[in-house]
Design a protein that fits this description.
- The chain is 9% helix and 28% strand.
- The strands form four sheets. Strands 1-2-3 form a three-stranded antiparallel β-sheet.
- The protein is built from one helix and eleven strands, in the order βββαββββββββ.
- The chain has one helix spanning 33-42; strands at residues 16-18, 21-23, 30-31, 60-62, 66-67, 74-75, 80-81, 85-86, 96-100, 104-108, 113-115.
- It has two domains: 1-41, N-terminal domain of TfIIb; 59-115, Roll (SH3 type barrels), CATH 2.30.30.
- It is mainly β.
- The chain is elongated, with a radius of gyration of 20 Å.
Length: 116
């Protein structure tokens, strides 16, 4: 017998199938098996502030003035950062490694950038 997956929203085990939809009776969430496959592929994806998926080598723009730790300088809004590298297992939330002209190598959080 085919075991249905738990609800992705509330993790309930009492899901049932209705046509091509899977339904959770506890939270009324509806989804398809295809959406589970798509979401599992993108769970490790790093996204910018607008929800766009970032890739190594992308160019991003800073969306907020950022104070540089240990310095009195600030990275201004609108600064373009070219050729970023993504860090997937970052424990401190800084998931972009890059070089910024005039500042040097540093790490950024993806929530403060947008894809250019």
């Amino acid at each position: 017998m085919f075991n249905l997956p738990n609800c992705p929203k509330c993790n309930s085990e009492y899901t049932y199938e209705d046509g091509s939809l899977l339904i959770c009776p506890e939270c009324a969430h509806e989804w398809t098996l295809e959406s589970i496959d798509e979401n599992s592929e993108n769970t490790n994806a790093i996204k910018d502030s607008n929800g766009n998926i970032l890739n190594d080598g992308d160019t991003v723009t800073i969306i907020k003035d950022l104070k540089v730790k240990g310095s009195s300088s600030v990275i201004k809004i609108g600064t373009k950062v070219k050729n970023i590298r993504l860090i997937h297992d970052s424990s401190d939330g800084h998931d972009i490694d890059c070089k910024i002209d005039g500042f040097g190598a540093m790490k950024l959080k993806s929530q403060f950038v947008k894809k250019a």
